[in-house]
Design goal:
The structure holds 2 protein chains of 2 kinds. Chain A has a 5-stranded parallel β-sheet, sandwiched between helices. In chain A, strands 7-6-8-9 form a 4-stranded parallel β-sheet, with helices on both faces. In chain A, strands 10-13-14 form a 3-stranded antiparallel β-sheet. Chain A contains 12 helices and 14 strands. Chain A is an alpha/beta fold. In chain A, helix 2 packs parallel to helix 11 and helix 5 crosses helix 6. Chain B has one domain: ABC transporter involved in vitamin B12 uptake, BtuC, CATH 1.10.3470. Chain B is globular. Chain B starts with a helix and ends with a helix. Classes of the chains: A alpha/beta, B mainly alpha. At the A-B interface, helix 1, helix 2, strand 7, helix 7 and helix 8 of A face helix 1, helix 4, strand 2, helix 8 and helix 10 of B.
């Protein structure tokens, strides 16, 4: 009898395993196949065209999937296009995507596996700050390039020579928010953040920079990342008599904040972080999202950019490709992955080699690479390469993103 | 603190509590028949809400919700027939572990059907900003829907379990399955029925809370844990107590937020649960008849 129950459980476990393993590959069957099988086009330096192995750790599923899923899709699309055009320096790119589900523990074991077993040249991702900080030292010690798609300042400060990141810095986002507050004459604010790496990073920057910008934080609260209702915390914020609310998170809570503020009639401006760059959050909170102000890259307003803007061509091309291929709106997060793979391939081209150290040195000297987040100018002191001008203040108008004008 | 603010905390507690309560109710139905805790209950909620969201693109909202409830009910029955019924020598522990496995399978299946993005049903009446004002504080109209639907479900369930032959037969199966069988009750079908009922009610709960909480494929587990806590807090098997316990926990959390940092909210909820388990193991509002079970 016991055997029989055990066997039922075994079957169940196997079934679970199948479903779980299925999800690593199936969301998009059109991803790059095995590079050896699809290489008739790679003709020029056909002698040593061994594929370059590039790892990627994205939170394709789980609570940060709205970061990881577009990132995975973007990188697959980029590599597919690149390989069809003959690869980089005659090498195809072999992409190895791992889904961490936003778990730092999984990210650690995946990073070790990619470095030790697959011997990748570089790792793209992870999607979240918490995961990146966990594998920062692992990549540094293994002298493997890490191109993180997460925002927190601590990823590049203090600097690790092999660690880079593509999204704009938290401090720059906070600076834009404070500048806008200055314009609006806002002096007293409430800050609410989620208990994630991203939330903590933002909280630290806001606390550090508030005083020097002449702003006082009256309420400073942290909420659970799974929170489904925030009226309690917002009641506290309302009671303190603030002139604006800043919410810093990447979770669906961003949509809930806007709704809850309208519901309890907390009628002050709502500022969100650069984590708000996904139209889904706006749709999730309906009319309530109108008027939300947040700093963001220009991808979301690419169509409104003047034709002579340096990023115009890159942004519209990426947006068109992505939306045509996947039938969903492009988000800034996918753009961070685009920048990561772009920087890597530019560096390989420049280095003319696939040696880890040579490529690393090349990244450090890249200048004027036009990406989706901005124009990257790396240096041995700056492993992010973006200036304050990589941000633009955006707002929500009639359920759409638009440039913010006072 | 002035009166409107105190009221606002109270209404915030009721908002959160109403969600806990309606989730907890679903746990009690299967428990009342089989004595097991269905850890896939949270997934029933999300399946229901997701189905309704998909259907709402083609049919009016009430029809979409009705359709979602029927489809999820069928799914609940199917799951019982295919998985639960096949476990021979089914001890409570084994069945519970099967439900945990099922929750994982359903969750992953949902990821493939509805992708990873958060979705939500439209507000049943008005928009996200429509509120009712009570003594200077505000509460979303949707919360009233949740409370109303909870009240209807609980009343109907109480009447069903107490006064109908089928309902009594289901309870008899939980008390002593062998004795129930000797009395001519078809115990297997009672279990199937309880899964269908609980899946259907879960689907309805998922639809009603969707505008408030949004719906994402992996939210079921988080909702289920809170619902489970509340079900225990009230006393397993007693739906009315579950609603009271849900509102109690919601209000308690709001109190914590008002007095301390909101980061301590979860700690207090867990401490209260531990205290209840130590000092009143049969629940806050336990009725002896349903809560003290002999193995």
């Amino acid at each position: 009898m016991r055997m029989r129950v055990a066997s039922v459980l075994c079957v169940l476990a196997v079934a679970c395993g199948l479903v779980l393993s299925g999800c690593e590959k199936s969301p998009d069957a059109s991803g790059p196949g095995t590079p050896a099988a699809t290489s008739p086009a790679a003709t020029k330096p056909a002698t040593d065209a061994a594929p370059i192995k590039v790892g990627a750790i994205f939170a394709v599923t789980g609570p940060a999937s709205f970061l990881g899923a577009p990132e995975e899709k973007t990188v697959k699309m980029f590599v597919e296009k690149l390989n069809q055009a003959g690869g980089v320096n005659g090498h195809k790119i072999e992409l190895l995507v791992r889904d961490s589900g936003a778990s730092p523990e999984k990210a650690i074991s995946m990073a070790k596996q990619l470095i030790d077993e697959e011997k990748v040249l570089a790792i793209l991702g992870p999607s979240t700050s918490g995961e990146t900080l966990q594998i920062k030292n692992i990549c540094q010690e293994a002298e493997t390039i890490l191109l993180s798609c997460a925002a927190a300042e601590e990823i590049v400060i203090p600097m690790a020579s092999y660690v880079f990141k593509t999204p704009q810095k938290d401090s720059q986002a906070a600076q834009w928010i404070f500048n806008t507050m200055k314009d609006l004459g806002i002096k007293k604010i409430g800050v609410i953040t989620s208990n994630t790496g991203f939330g903590k990073g933002g909280k630290a920057q806001l606390e550090k920079m508030a005083a020097e910008n002449g702003v006082e934080i009256l309420v400073n609260e942290v909420y659970e990342k799974e929170a489904t209702d925030l009226t309690g915390v917002l009641t506290k914020v309302k009671g303190a008599g603030v002139q604006a609310v800043v919410n810093w998170s990447i979770e669906p809570a961003q949509g809930i904040v806007a709704k809850n503020m309208k519901q309890i009639q907390l009628d002050v401006p709502l500022f969100q972080s650069h984590g708000y760059g996904n139209i889904k959050y706006v749709q999730a909170s309906g009319d309530a999202a109108d008027g939300t102000i947040f700093p963001c890259g220009r991808l979301l307003v690419a169509d409104e950019l003047p034709a002579d803007h340096p990023q115009k061509a890159v942004l519209t091309q990426y947006k068109q490709d992505y939306e045509a291929k996947y039938k969903e709106d492009a988000s800034t997060f996918g753009g961070h992955a685009y920048d990561a793979i772009l920087i890597l391939t530019e560096a390989i081209k420049k280095a003319g080699s696939t040696d880890k150290k040579a490529v690393r040195d090349a990244i450090e000297n890249l200048q004027g690479v036009v990406g989706t987040a901005g124009v990257f100018n790396f240096s041995p002191q700056d492993h992010n390469g973006l200036g304050l001008d990589a941000f633009e203040m955006l707002t929500v108008k009639g359920g759409k993103f638009a440039f913010y004008k006072k | 603190m002035n009166l409107p603010q105190i009221m606002q905390y109270g209404l915030s507690g009721i908002t959160v509590g109403s969600v806990y309560a309606i989730v907890a109710v679903g746990f009690n139905i299967i428990y009342n028949t089989t004595g097991i805790i269905n850890f896939a209950q949270g997934e029933f909620l999300i399946v229901g809400a997701m189905t309704a969201i998909s259907l709402s693109h083609v049919v009016p909202l009430p029809v979409a919700i009705l359709g979602a409830v029927l489809i999820t009910t069928a799914l609940g029955g199917l799951i019982e027939l295919v998985f639960i019924r096949r476990v021979r020598d089914a001890s409570v522990l084994r069945l519970i572990i099967v439900t945990i496995g099922l929750s994982i399978v359903i969750r992953e299946a949902m990821l493939h059907i509805w992708d990873e993005k958060p979705w939500s049903l439209p507000y049943f009446t008005g928009t996200s900003s429509t509120t009712v004002s009570i003594l200077g504080a505000y509460i979303s109209v949707q919360v009233l829907w949740v409370l109303g639907v909870s009240a209807v479900i609980v009343t109907a369930l109480t009447l069903f379990f107490r006064y109908t032959t089928t309902g009594r037969a289901m309870r008899a199966c939980s008390d002593d399955r062998m004795a129930a069988r000797l009395c001519g009750i078809n115990d297997r079908w009672m279990v199937t029925l309880s899964f269908m009922l609980s899946a259907g009610i879960g689907a309805l709960a998922g639809c009603v809370i969707s505008p408030i909480t949004q719906t994402q494929y992996d939210m079921g587990a988080t909702l289920a844990i809170k619902g489970f806590t509340v079900a225990i807090l009230g006393g397993l098997g007693n739906s009315m107590a579950a609603v009271a316990a849900g509102l109690f926990l919601g209000l308690l959390e709001a109190l914590v937020v008002s007095q301390f940092a909101s980061a301590y909210k979860e700690v207090v909820a867990i401490v209260v649960l531990l205290l209840i388990l130590v000092f009143r193991p049969s629940g806050l509002f336990a009725r002896r008849a349903t809560s003290v079970r002999t193995a």
